[in-house]
Amino acid sequence: MNFTEKDIKQIEKKGLTVEKVNAQIQLFKTGFPFVNLKGRATIGNGILKLNKKEKEEYIAYFNNKRDTTSMLKFVPASGAATRMFKFLFSFIEEYDSDNESINSYINRKKATELSIFLIGLKYFPFYYKVKQQLYKDCKNFDSLSNNKQIVLFVKMMLEKDKLNYGDFPKGLLPFHQYRTHFATAFEEHLFEAAYYASSNNKANLHFTISEKHNHKFDDEFKRIEEIVEKKTKTSFDISFSYQKGSTDTIAVTPKNIPFREEDGSLLFRPSGHGALLENLNDLNADIIFVKNIDNVAVFNFEEEVGQYKKILAGILLKIQKQAFQYQKDLDNKAVNDEDLINIAQFLSNKMNITISSEFEKYSIKYQIEYLAEKLNRPIRVCGMVKNEGEPGGGPFWVKEESGNFTLQIVESAQIDKKNKLQKDILKNATHFNPVDLVCGIKNYKGKKFNLTKFVDYKTAFITMKTKTGKDIKALELPGLWNGSMAHWNSIFVEVPLITFNPVKTVNDLMKPQHQIN
User: Which has the closest alpha carbon to 129: 177, 201, 70, 72?
Assistant: First the structure.
């Protein structure tokens, strides 16, 4: 593709190169292969199920190590809350208060979500704040019809010149109503971090956010810092980063020609959560907890949720200790035939690594190299929840081009649903991925891995979008916990549903995990 001088300046300003952009355009033309599922991961076959005694042992192991282990909690928090309120935006746009009642609109549009929202209105944490603002702006509010009150209420929530919740970062919305105050998701993450991601009464958190919201997060931390630190007896070191412009990808027309804005400039788009691998790669800690911004619960559930984070971290630290010792022995060539077999069994039984059937035929020298390469990778321990029909990825065994089988988190978009066998494996999955990870990103010498070297770039995918009413094709990088971690060593552990409390739509805030009473 030949770009103009103006195009090249735009490309370079984003931190990209012409070669990279041309490579992206080529990917639109060639497409990506679907993953080849060998089977679902299940209890005893890729997913670990712990008994009470084992859970207690891992918690104790973690507690014993926590003050000598540097920890950090990494929270992807870039997104605006717009999608949470999608059905309310539609209501404001489509409802004609002069010609129909809201009940009539609900029946006509089959607007079940709106009906649920209105029934539970008083249970939302922002209810009293919205009402307070309404009474300030509209002196005769109580004399209005119920229909008009509801319309004004929703407009007060969403419109830009009012509370503007639709354009808020999700992490700063009122999520939970306590007796004396409401709490944002950002605040709840601080309380959680103090419970399970702190060392020596200090908690480090890193949030990836949109640059335009930077001051809002700073203001929120200033608002709550003193009270949270007093309640948790923990000091907080909070850092922020933005999705890097160099991870954006070019958008193309359905014919794979670069899409241009009205002013003739090229259109680049954020490339999904896989872009955040660069942000994660910039961080430094012995272990890193990864959890999405909207996956929090009210204080009542904090201990139960936190115990499972400690379990995952305990597993990581214990497995890592043995893996590090084996790596050290292999590096020093301090191994015999029996040691090599033990290491191979450890990789197979504890870390879900498929060992080549030809392994025992290799020379000693090559066996050492083979095992060292398998061990010398970042490790992730991931909670997996029983499948309850939630959307999103899940744990599967995947057959790679080399013929090896690896344990992966796979999104449904990566699977060929026209293939009956692949579709059946997906349909019968027993667990799904709640994005509940504890990561070890250093080798046994304490040196950080370059995480970009463990990505399977063939797991990127193409999505269809629209821009100013026109169809475009967008390129998403391998997902942060999918293809971006494809070559990590993975351990999957069953955790209960209580650990997964996402808020995808505003109505999710009415679930018990988000309500005090």
Answer: 177
Judged against a pLDDT cut of 90, whether residue 89 lies above it is answered with yes
* DSSP run (H or E) holding 47: strand 46-48
Q: Which amino acid is at 211?
A: E
Backbone angles phi, psi at 493, to 5 degrees: -130, 135
Do 407 and 312 belong together in one domain? yes
Amino acid (one-letter) located at 317? L
Dist. CA 327–CA 343, nearest whole Å: 9
Token couple for 399: 């057959």
Cα 216 to Cα 207: distance, rounded to the nearest angstrom = 13
Contact by Cβ (8 Å): 486, 478: yes
Which position has the token pair 């990566």? 414
State what percent of residues in the chain have pLDDT above 90: 89
Residue with tokens 């195009």: 7
91 and 112 housed in the same domain:
yes
Are 294 and 502 in contact by the 8 Å Cβ rule? The answer is yes
Q: What is the total count of domains within the chain?
A: 3
Per-residue pLDDT of 213-222, as tens digits, reads 889 999 999 9
Pick the closest to residue 451 from 263, 337, 225, 290 (CA basis): 290
pTM above 0.90, yes or no: yes
CA distance 61 to 311: 9
The answer to whether residue 49 is domain-embedded is yes
- The pair of structure tokens assigned to 140 is 């005769």
Q: Which SS3 state, helix, strand or coil, does residue 264 take?
A: coil
